[in-house]
Amino acid sequence: MKRDANPSFLNGVPELLVLQLLKGREMYGYELVQAIKEATGETIVLGEGVVYPVLHMLEREGALKSRRQSVSGRSRIYYSLTPVGERRRRDIQGSWQRTTMAIRNVLEGPRHA
Predict the structure, then answer these.
(1) Tens digits of per-residue pLDDT, 18-67?
(2) Which domain of life is it from (predicted)?
């Protein structure tokens, strides 16, 4: 049985993944596409058509900053997290952790200490 690589309930996940991956270092768009694919074991595969709009939205909202750099004659835009982005990342991460715990409780039953 074929599984969807990106089920519809994953709305909002690209933002979290981008923010989390940029926590450690700056990256350019295609690099983020590849990092998401690798970090999720190819369970979540996001194209540039998903990642770039997320990057642009986050930059407009002050969560990311960018800088242009020429690499081998090509211009790349590198993105990095701002303090606003770090707060947003922590908030979204906390929300997803609570959500996944709630789902785990349903699937496995609540854990008793």
Answers:
(1) 999 999 899 999 999 999 999 999 999 999 999 999 999 999 999 999 99
(2) Bacteria
CA neighbours closer than 13 Å in the CB half-sphere of residue 52: 6
Q: Of 33, 35, 37, 64, whose CA–CA distance to 49 is shortest?
A: 33
CATH number of 8-95: 1.10.10.10
Tell me what percent of the residues of the chain surpass a pLDDT of 90. 69
| Beta carbons of 66 and 52 less than 8 angstroms apart | no
The C-alpha atoms of residue 84 and residue 91 are separated, in whole angstroms, by 11
Domain boundaries, the chain: 8-95
Angle at Cα 81 formed by Cα 57 and Cα 90, nearest 5°?
A: 90
How many Å from the N-terminal Cα to the C-terminal Cα in the chain?
38
